[in-house]
Amino acid sequence: MHGLNLRALEIFRTVAIEGSVSRAAMKLNRVQSNISTRIKQLEQQLEKNLFLRHNRGLSLTPDGQLLLAYAERFLQLSMEASEALKVGKPRGVFRIGTMESTAAARLPEILSRYHELHPDVQIELETDTAGALMDRLLNYDIEIAFAAEPVSFDWVTTRPVFEERLILVAPQSFPPLENKSEISGKTVVAFEAGCAYRRYLEQWLLEAGIVPGSIMAVSSYLAILACVSAGAGYAVIPQSVLDVVSTKGQFQRYDLPDNISHIKTLLAWRSDYRSAKLDALIDLLPAS
Q1: CA gap 110, 140 in Å, rounded
Q2: Nearest of 72, 60, 87, 85 to residue 10 by alpha carbon
C-alpha cells in the first residue's frame, strides 16, 4: 500500500469536521464531485469504510475515527516541518490550550501584544482542565498548554511563567471561619475532576482533616463565584481571577497554607516541537 497523501488527509479531515461533503467543498473551495472522489479513493486505498452515510450527513466509523487521530498528527507535523525550514516571521495557526483562569487573568494583554507583533499568526485559544490539556497536547490537538504544576512527563518540556495565589472563598451567609474545620460537611464548588486547583483543595482538606460534603461541578469561574455568592458552598479561586471580576462584599476570603496556595503555572509543549510561533510567545512571557 502506498503512503497516505497529505492533501487527501486534509480533505478527509475537513469532511469529518464539517459532517458533509457539500460543507467541506465550500470550506476547501472545491467542487463536491472532487471531494467525493478523493474520499472514495482513500477508502479504496485503505480498504476501509471511513464514513457512515445517512440523511443528516456523514459520521465517522471506528476506522474513520482512528484515521482522524492520525490525520491530525500528520498534518500538524507537516506544518511544523514546513515552519521549521522557513526563515522569516511566525505565521499560520497557533493552537493554544489553557486553564480558564490563565485565559481570563493572565493572557489577554500578552496575546493582544502577540497579535500586534505577529499578525500572520492565527491564534486558536481553547480552555480546559490541566489534566485534559495534557491529554490534548499528547494527541496533537494543541501545540502548547498553560497548566498548573506539577507537569512531569518525559515527552513534555515546561517553563514556569506565572505564580497563582489560591484563596478560599465562602458565602457571606457562612459564619466567620475562625476555625476552618467549620466548613466540614459543606458543599465544595469546583471544576470537574482533572482541575489542578480542585486537586490542591482536596489535598488541603485531607491534610486538615476536613470532610467535604457534596461536590458541585461547574464549568467556569463566573459560575463558581455565582454559586458561592448564592450560598451554595465554598471554593478556591486564584487571586488573579478575583482581581479581574467585581466581587467586593460578596464573599468571605481566607488565606490557605503556603504549600498549596502558591502554585506555578507552566508553559508546556511536546519535547519534539519547536516553532517560530512558540519562540515569539516565549519572548513576551515573564522570565522563568
Answers
A1: 23
A2: 72
- Beta carbons of 124 and 94 less than 8 angstroms apart: yes
Give the end of a domain, one of 52, 78, 104.
78
Can you tell me the distance from the alpha carbon of 236 to that of 263, in angstroms, rounded to the nearest whole number?
Answer: 12
The amino acid that residue 65 corresponds to is: Q
Lowest mean pLDDT among 162-171, 247-256, 264-273: 247-256
Specify whether the CB–CB gap between 122 and 171 falls below 8 A.
no
Rounded to whole angstroms, how far apart are CA atoms 136 and 246? 32
How far is it, in rounded angstroms, from Cα 139 to Cα 206?
33
pLDDT tens digits along 201-259: 998 898 888 888 899 999 899 999 999 999 999 999 999 999 888 766 688 889 888 88
Per-residue model confidence as pLDDT tens digits over 10-23: 899 999 988 889 88
Q: Is 25 helix (H, G, I), strand (E, B) or coil?
A: helix
Any idea what the CATH number is for the domain that residue 11 is in? 1.10.10.10
Cell of 29: 473551495
Q: Report the CATH number that the domain containing residue 195 is assigned in CATH.
A: 3.40.190.10
* DSSP designation for 234: B
Residues 133 and 221 in one domain: no
Residues 134 and 275 in one domain: yes
Number of domains in the chain: 3
